[in-house]
Amino acid sequence: MDVVRELINNLPRNCQLIIGSRSLPDLRLGRLRARGQLLELDAEVLRFNPAEAAEFFKLRGAEMSLELLDWAHGKTEGWVAALWLLSLALQRQGAKSDIVSRMSLSERDVADYLTEEVLSQQEPNVRDFLLRTSVLRHLSAPACRALLPNVDCVEMLRALERDNVFLIPLEDSPDLYRYHSLFADFLRNQLSKERPDDLTRLHLAASGWYESQGRPVPAIDHAIEGGDYPYALQLLELNANVLLEQGRMRLLNRWFSAISSDLLSKHPLLQVIGVWARCFSQGPWTAMERLQQSGCIESSKPDVQAHVRALLPVLLAMMDRYDEAHEAGRDGVRRLPSGNSFVDSVLLNAMAHIVSVAGERLEAHRFLEDARKSQGESAFNRMYTETVGGLLDLREGRLRQATARFRMAITSFSGAATYNYSHGNAWAGVPYAGVVYEANDVDAAERLLNVYLPLARDVGLPDHMISSHRLRSRIAFLRGDVDTALQTLTELEYLGHQRQLPRVIASAKLERSHLLILQGHMAAAQEELARASDRSVWDSMKQQYRPAQEVDDLFIGQVRLDLHNGKAALTIPLLETEIRHSQTLARLQRSLKLRLFLALAYLQGGDIGRAVNFGITVLQEACREGFVRLLIDEGPLVGGLVRRVQGACASVGQDPIFSDYLQQLSDLLGIAATEDEMQSTGPAEALAEPLTRKEIRVLQLLAEGYSNMAMAEKLFVSDSTVRTHLRNINTKLDCRSRTQAVSVARRLGVIR
Length: 752
Prior knowledge:
The chain is mostly helical. The chain is 70% helix and 1% strand. The protein folds into six domains: 2-40, no CATH class; 45-103; 257-421, Serine Threonine Protein Phosphatase 5, Tetratricopeptide repeat; 461-565, Serine Threonine Protein Phosphatase 5, Tetratricopeptide repeat; 568-679, no CATH class; 684-747, Winged helix-like DNA-binding domain superfamily/Winged helix DNA-binding domain (Arc Repressor Mutant, subunit A).
């Protein structure tokens, strides 16, 4: 080290010294760091992030789905050696979900690596420390001392950190550590093989220590892992209600799933808390089955009955049985207060949502006010209340207020923005993703969907399933990935069949019709719309107003298709009637969409002055609340209206905020042809220079909605080659945009 220090101090000008080391060498680096002469690439920098991991697997020929990729990255924490070993296993056995889900440190490659590279090189006392403390999720000197009273745990942890033995310090906690998750799994596996008798004793020692420190969650964890279920139930009796109020549903469900039903049957209050946890972790169907089997419905205990009266309307509403939920909820409300603030607030929140679906808007607001008064300190109920309030705000056209409520709801557990959904708050996360998408922050919406869509799918909330899959499909289509867009809708349709939810099936077909319209396949769109026309579904919508169908139902789907087919005269009287009905019910978000369609119908019918005046009013309202995707998701038709409104406003002067908003819409619609372009004189019927086979293929993909990048991947060429083809196509067809080129090519019969 002295020689290396001397070398550093006397390096010639422009000379660089590169040092690779598993641990941080004692080279007085602080001085170099202060001078700006040190570049450090530590383990955090070297770990692959999710995007790099995806690219790595792609290059290795072992592509995985987004869900499996998230799992693999979370498990390996971006550790490149582990990702490499996983890619080898996938190459040998194929990138199947069962291979990845079975992948653990029992895999010989990884186990051999860790044994040879890490564990076998440790001194016996260090090896013993590693094995015994592997039962701890977080390592601190006092917690380790509870398991190893005769060891200097402070010095041992410092030595392990210094030697970089897969020990990771936790942020903002300088004396708290954890093992890398793969290494921890490996150590626990080794402990159970070498010292099975020690495993139970270590868990129970850890449980006792955590209880003495007033930390019930790890205490219950270790009691269950140690097999002392009576002790775990004793701790749960003291703490389950608090954890329920905090919304720790997945945690509670994990615990209750590990304890036998025979033991739980002696604790009816814990049984009914377990039903809440199962409802928001695994869905209402399994929760209802558990409730019916538990005997809690017939319980004579008042506290258990209070939970049951709140559970029934919640479960029935989540199962799309709103009429039954309304009846059960009314019965529960008549018996309030129950003496349990959590239960009372949940019931009032549930009723606010149920009566809003029934169209009883003012009563819904009254229920919400009562819920706020009774919710106490429950983070779960704060989330529930603000989400239901946000859904009402959105229906009434208050996008900005709804966004604030949803944001507050998803951060109600931590007080800071987070994408952690471990508390089960997908109830708020999916609508929040929707309003973020509506404001055209597509990247943020996609990140939120990556978190909340899997949970919405697992729990099985119909409106959340529909909304999240529809959003993911639209984002994929927006990026030019038509295959993923259609696959997402197929998955939604499958979920509807699997769970016997006709509304989910019909919604998937309805959105597929929308995509086909945007691709210009009008006949196919009409067929798909006909398949979506399940009268048993849409007739109920005339009396019940579900969040997922507020601006996407059969009526809107049919009007959209008629407008794209040039049937403006047919749509105008229907739209005028529906607009009056929506405004009477204060469904102002829906009214905004319908009035946009009416302005487009006037424009298409040649009533330009009326279309522009109507369009100005609609766009001004949209501007005030920040609606963007509600307009531009309708595709090229909106471009002509926006352009004409811009021209009318420019001639008389206009509010600069509104002018900026119109310019934003114009920029977003810029790749689409305006109405004037669509009606401009096309090229001669016989092209002066014919299109090549490759250019015709590009036109076909263009008509399908593919982006440049997606076309490049499909054709196995570079982005620049695709751009060259597009320039040649526009020149040969005498066009100024992609949409105009597709229109002209169809008119000439080049593509269908």
